[in-house]
Amino acid sequence: xxxxxxxxxxxxxxxxxxxxxxxxxxxxxxxxxxxxxxxxxxxxxxxxxxxxxxxxxxxxxxxxxxxxxxxxxxxxxxxxxxxxxxxxxxxxxxxx
Amino acid sequence: xxxxxxxxxxxxxxxxxxxxxxxxxxxxxxxxxxxxxxxxxxxxxxxxxxxxxxxxxxxxxxxxxxxxxxxxxxxxxxxxxxxxxxxxxxxxxxxxxxxxxxxxxxxxxxxxxxxxxxxxxxxxxxxxxxxxxxxxxxxxxxxxxxxxxxxxxxxxxxxxxxxxxxxxxxxxxxxxxxxxxxxxxxxxxxxxxxxxxxxxxxxxxxxxxxxxxxxxxxxxxxxxxxxxxxxxxxxxxxxxxxxxxxxxxxxxxxxxxxxxxxxxxxxxxxxxxxxxxxxxxxxxxxxxxxxxxxxxxxxxxxxxxxxxxxxxxxxxxxxxxxxxxxxxxxxxxxxxxxxxxxxxxxxxxxxxxxxxxxxxxxxxxxxxxxxxxxxxxxxxxxxxxxxxxxxxxxxxxxxxxxxxxxxxxxxxxxxxxxxxxxxxxxxxxxxxxxxxxxxxxxxxxxxxxxxxxxxxxxxxxxxxxxxxxxxxx
Lengths: 96, 473
Hints:
The structure holds two protein chains of two kinds. By secondary structure, chain A is mainly β. Chain A is built from one helix and eight strands, in the order E-E-E-H-E-E-E-E-E. By secondary structure, chain B is of the alpha/beta class. Chain B has three domains: about 5-120 and about 265-335, FAD/NAD(P)-binding domain (3-Layer(bba) Sandwich); about 120-260, FAD/NAD(P)-binding domain (3-Layer(bba) Sandwich); about 375-440, Arc Repressor Mutant, subunit A. Chain B is built from 14 helices and 22 strands. Chain B has helices at about 15-25, 60-75, 135-145, 160-170, 185-195, 200-215, 265-270, 310-330, 335-360, 365-370, 385-395, 400-410, 420-430, 455, and strands at about 5-10, 30-35, 55, 80, 85-90, 95-100, 105-115, 120, 135, 155-160, 175-180, 220, 225-230, 235-240, 250-255, 255-260, 260-265, 275-280, 285, 300, 380, 385. The radius of gyration of chain B is 23 Å and the shape is globular. At the A-B interface, strand 1, helix 1 and strand 5 of A face strand 3, strand 9 and helix 3 of B. Strand 1 (about 10) of chain A pairs antiparallel with strand 3 (about 55) of chain B, so a sheet runs across the interface.
């Protein structure tokens, strides 16, 4: 089942990003949180005390749950837009 | 576009209310800047599609058309815009600090209009932190701005018309809704019908959505709540529970989208020390304003849903009205023009309020949702603080929200209490048997959003740092 519906838009250019050392295809300009969410990559980071998995939640820059490492820096993935060659790491973000 | 350092008016938030305000200011030739953290106009309700998406044909979602018009209108009126800028501090006078991917910026302005909208209210339950559980508003954003269905199977839970809207869009896009879990009963909906008819257009649209849902035979569990979510190999196992009969049922799905209404954003008014009042039907704590949206601080106006929830259509009018007050206060328009402009809008706003009140009633949080929160359920997601930790603080003597914050660290994490404040206040008021408003609200603190240190420092030469005079010993 294709979760991207195609009634209204041609998606942008198809690009490749690297998520946890694996190649993932997405469309340029798409929201990183959403792309990860629908690409079987819902676990984004660990919570600080209990080390439990956390992921995208509010999608409007409020909750700060969707933090990932983008090219080595911590960012909220809900306001990152896909570009070719982005390197993403999820999981334990403090482990170098 | 090069931005100025100082403006007559800065508008924060480019949703319906902010856009209306900025245009009205520009019409009167004021130097105006509008700031938004997202890429474009529209706010959350009309969030723009990614810039790289190309329109295929004449078909468009209504929301996308409205958003496009907002952007065109701002351009036509030569309004300065700062998209992708997150405001992290506002100081009296006013100075606005923001950051984007290049670093930090600051602007000065004589007048400030806050059109910062709302965020979603979500009452915690066991397992609400599991990835795959998302906000109902988040679900709407994925559907409307990206035209993507969030998962193969989705359960929707919470209350209010957003449940119906989200279910409708998922079906329209060819997705599958496994169940709708609504805290309201069927009679709650029936009771609201009369007031909802006050806005025939929205009412008929709602009926149309509802029909599509009924035809699709999605199971609807009324008067029910999510009791517990567990992760399994395939996705999520969602246990729902009847609010009155306590009967449980388990549904397996991939995504759970849950939302219990909206909370006005008061980050900036709290930071500036403006007066606030508590109004449950308006979303909880809101800045104290007069009927023209003037706050308790001179030259600070609070508009849109952030001033109390009444919906997107009303938000646009509120923006115009707040700006009329500003123009009058600045002596740009006289009393006659002010009355001419404002009276018509005030009448319209009164009509919208009937509809807004009905929606607010459907979105009211049943006490049972708070009472049923389990002891080990996390309330503050940032700091992993459970209900038990919060109750412990009250037993040790914490009596208001700020004391609870100092005691437990709830509200000190990166979300600054935006996600947990309502739930924690509700749990404590239930525990101490007092009103939510008696507990106060979390004092506003900057930074409002985490600011990356490299961005706040930027590039500098050591010689350029201003040295302060030595302090006397």
